[in-house]
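Is this the right way to post structure tokens for a design question? Let me know if I should format differently. Anyway, here goes:
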């Protein structure tokens, strides 16, 4: 799967995934048609996508967008393409002035350094497996496994990611498969076995079952 870099890119495997899931899972068979032609979409470049994820940590969507707009203006890049070198050129006080915490400013500079110095192998990601990419990403300050998995799903559009630390996924499974009873990660993992090799797609539809508006990551 090549890295998506333009707006509105959708995965070519989606229709096959829907057929597969509908055949193997009675809940998916009912759930998928409810969302018509809605699809996962990837947008932006790798650095910008990860920078947005850091900016948005632990604040509301509205607040995150406000800070992001100011940050993007500061580094003189369009919203969907920011040069890591321009971020490295900013000192912490300048980043703080657009609404970033000290910690997030440090995280963004560390992210920029990893990209500028070639410590992440963006051009090789299409040939690397999911876990190898996750290992590279979690070495960056401010990026944990959950963020790395969201990146795999929403940016690289990897088809078979099951983010077991995602509360939305666990809630969707609870509501759709267990009549609202709490679900353990082990139970979620076992259920996800029948979704392979399209666990990302099943996850996306369970998110939609909680919030019909597609996530823009």
């Amino acid at each position: 799967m090549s890295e998506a870099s333009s707006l509105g890119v959708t995965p070519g495997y989606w229709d096959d995934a829907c057929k597969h899931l509908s055949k193997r899972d009675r809940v998916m068979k009912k759930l998928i048609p409810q969302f018509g032609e809605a699809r996962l979409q990837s947008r932006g470049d790798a650095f910008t996508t990860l920078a947005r994820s850091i900016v948005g940590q632990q604040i509301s969507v509205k607040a995150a967008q406000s800070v992001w707009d100011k940050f993007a203006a500061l580094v003189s890049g369009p919203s969907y393409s920011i040069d890591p070198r321009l971020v490295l050129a900013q000192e912490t006080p300048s980043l703080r002035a657009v609404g970033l915490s000290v910690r997030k400013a440090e995280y963004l500079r560390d992210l920029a350094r990893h990209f500028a110095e070639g410590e992440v192998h963006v051009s090789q990601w299409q040939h690397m497996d999911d876990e190898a990419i996750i290992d590279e990403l979690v070495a960056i300050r401010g990026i944990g496994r959950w963020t790395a998995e969201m990146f795999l799903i929403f940016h690289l559009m990897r088809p078979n990611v099951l983010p077991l630390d995602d509360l939305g996924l666990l809630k969707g499974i609870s509501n759709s498969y267990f009549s609202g009873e709490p679900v353990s990660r082990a139970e979620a993992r076992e259920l996800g076995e029948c979704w392979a090799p399209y666990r990302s797609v099943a996850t996306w539809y369970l998110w939609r079952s909680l919030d019909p508006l597609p996530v823009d990551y």
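Format looks fine. Someone answered above. Worth noting: The CA atoms of residues 71 and 98 lie 6 Å apart. The longest helix spans residues 102-116.
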